[in-house]
Amino acid sequence: MLANIPRTMPTATASLPAPDTIFIRELRHQTLVGVYPWEREATQAVEIDIDFDLPGRHAADSHELADTIDYSKVVARVRAILDDHDAQLLEALAELIATTLLREFGMPRLRLSLAKLNLMPGVKKLGITIERRPA
User: Fold this and answer.
1) Which residues does 9 contact at the CB level (< 8 Å), separation at least 6?
2) Which of 6, 29, 98, 113 could form a disulfide with 132 if both were Cys (CB 3.0 to 4.6 A apart)?
3) CB atoms within 10 A of CB 86
4) How many C-beta atoms lie closer than 10 Å to residue 112's C-beta?
5) What is the CA 31 to chain-centroid distance, rounded?
């Protein structure tokens, strides 16, 4: 009786291949962020990790930069945001960075971690991780 039960369930549709993902690790920059007055007086170091999916696999075939998302432009855009924003909460700053990158670079998915460094005794990093897709 059990011999007639299939070991795997048939699927109605073929699964899509996993997307290619570019990652940027430990991007560090000085910025003003925080709600406490002492955090608004001087810049502090933040660290960002970003993973973003590519809209296709064209660059792997073409070997052309135009067929991918240029990570140097992504880094430059993140730094520009960190130099000129009015967010006080890390949550708001992470959201600003994510929505800007999704919109300007056409990323289908982005995962971003934003951390303050050495903010409190005994705490190396504290921060937030968000994952977003275009609206």
Assistant:
1) none
2) 98
3) 9
4) 23
5) 18
Residue 51: C-alpha distances to residues 14, 32, 80, 87 (Å): 26, 24, 19, 22
Compute CA distances 99 → 12, 17, 43, whole Å.
Answer: 34, 25, 23
DSSP-derived secondary structure for 1-46: -GGGS-SS---SSPPPPPPPEEEEEEEEEEE---SSGGGTTS-EEE
Q: How far apart are CA 82 and CA 65, in angstroms?
A: 26
pTM of the model: 0.85
> 26: phi > 0 → left, psi -120 to 50 → alpha, else beta; which?
left
